[in-house]
Structure formats: structure tokens, C-alpha cells
Amino acid sequence: MPLVNIFLREGTTPAFRRDVSLSVHRAMVDVLGIPEGDRFHHLHEFRPENIQTEPVAFGIPRGDRTLVVQMFFNSRPPEVKEALFAAVRDRLRDTAGVPEEDLFLCVVETAGENWWAAGRVVDPATGYDVRMDRTGASG
User: Fold this and answer.
1) Packing angle between helix 78-96 and helix 14-32, nearest 10 degrees?
2) Predicted TM-score of the model (pTM)
3) Which of 15, 45, 81, 112 satisfies CB 3.0 to 4.6 Å to 10 for a cystine?
4) Residue ranges of the alpha helices (H) in 1-139?
């Protein structure tokens, strides 16, 4: 049951926010093997003065449409997270028009015992939700 926080500048359209959320979710379904119906996203809009970023960071000019995606889930191997970052980047670019220069992605890994939600069924042998597609996903 991943939880996702999406932080963006105030003034985006409902269609843009929907496209962002669905792009992130589709990438998580495809790469992590989470169930289709396992989307728990919180979108947080900030006034421009409440997002402070440098115009150039890591030698790359940044735009004024900063978008931060913070994903909470159980531990995954580095190559799975790398594939997830690439899938989120590509989907956000292709579906919502988010340039990668304005995108920041963060994974916060937590132990399986730190999660609870009504209806979730955890396999005691693995510690993961029984609905998970376990091909390449580790939690």
C-alpha cells in the first residue's frame, strides 16, 4: 500500500493534477507490481513563494513548475527504484508535460510492520500484501 505525496505550485488545473497522479500510479503498478486499486495520493499545492528552489541546480537550469513526488513503500532493490524513477519521469513528461528539469523524486522506505489499512491482508510468511504481483517486487 504505497502512499504518495505530490507537491506542486498553486494554480494547476484539476486535469493536470489528475494526469500527474495517474502517471505516478501507472508507473508504480507497472514497475512495483502494486494492485490497480491501490492508489493513495495526496496532492499539496503551494503558493510560489512557498517553494524555494535555485534557478540552476547540479548545473541544470530549473523552471518555475517544480514538482516533487514523495513515495512511501516497503524496501525495494536499487535497480527497481531506478526503473521506477525512469517510469515516473517518462510518464509525467509524456502525459502531463512535466519537464524532467522540474521534477524531483524521493522514495521513503519503511518496514512492512509500519503499515495498516482496513482490508489489507498480509501474508505472515512474506510480510507483504497477498494481492502484490511478486514478479520483481519485493514488498
Assistant:
1) 150
2) 0.82
3) 45
4) 14-32, 78-96
